[in-house]
Automatic annotation (TrEMBL):
It comes from the Eukaryota. This is Coatomer subunit zeta. The lineage of its organism: Eukaryota, Viridiplantae, Streptophyta, Embryophyta, Tracheophyta. InterPro entries: AP_mu_sigma_su, Coatomer_zeta, Longin-like_dom_sf. Belongs to the adaptor complexes small subunit family. It comes from Paspalum notatum var. saurae.
């Protein structure tokens, strides 16, 4: 399947709990363009739900079997040369470090000449769905099985790249990313747990990452992200000096 744009896909639905984002990507909600019954049924089938759910209702974990729960196989952040910045794998499809590195090199090479700087793109690669996006000298990738919902994967990708942008205060480049690698890895942990998608809203992800490292005495709503990160680094410095 050739690369295709995801700009017109709806990945802006609320995502806490995450299943609400599935609903937002599957059927047209308030103020959204209506989807045809056939397209609604197709999207619902991709996440294991019956077409009846497209006529309103709420999603719960009971509606998803373990096999149909949206999941990803890896999430990658590479530099402009295809080298690792931050990666996490949630599948045994790549059992060795050598196989992981080979996959990263291959997917980087395949997508390098595409125009994924203004919007996310999608491709089918080695039997996997890969959604990806480039921001300055950083390349963001999300890989999943070919039976996963592309809309959900796009929301994961955008949640990852946007939350990194918030935490790095817009300075999304390799140097800054390496200086804040711990925050980026925490971002991934907030988005994915064992391959299962937990959260895709960038503000929520960045907020959780920042507040996890600071005292609970000041609510995050009363702090800016930069203030929270400064406090987190101060606490880290103190712990290293002990």
């Amino acid at each position: 399947m050739p690369s295709s744009k995801l700009a017109n896909l709806d990945h802006s639905a609320p995502s806490s709990p995450f299943l609400r984002s599935c609903a937002g990507g599957i059927h047209a909600g308030r103020n959204r363009s209506p989807l045809s019954p056939a397209l609604q049924a197709w999207r619902l089938a991709r996440v294991g739900l019956s077409p009846g759910w497209s006529r309103g209702g709420r999603y719960t974990m009971a509606d998803f079997s373990k096999e149909s729960c949206p999941s990803v196989k890896n999430i990658l952040l590479l530099d402009s040369e295809g080298k690792r910045v931050a990666v996490k794998y949630f599948s045994d499809d790549w059992p060795t470090n050598a196989s992981k590195l080979a996959y990263e090199k291959s997917v980087f090479t395949k997508t390098l000449k595409t125009n994924a700087r203004t919007e996310a793109e999608i491709t089918l690669f080695d039997g996997y769905i890969v959604v990806y996006k480039f921001v300055h000298d950083l390349h963001f990738f999300v890989t999943a099985g070919d039976d996963e919902n592309e809309l959900i994967l796009a929301s994961v990708l955008n949640g990852f790249s946007d939350s990194v942008g918030l935490l790095l205060r817009g300075d999304v480049e390799k140097r800054t990313a390496l200086e804040n690698l711990d925050l980026i890895l925490l971002c991934i942990d907030e988005i994915i747990d064992g391959g299962i998608i937990l959260e895709t809203d960038a503000n929520t992800i960045a907020g959780k990452v920042a507040t996890n490292a600071v005292d609970g005495s000041v609510p995050f709503s009363e702090q800016t992200i930069s203030q929270a990160l400064a406090t987190a680094r101060e606490h880290l410095a103190r712990s290293l000096l002990k």
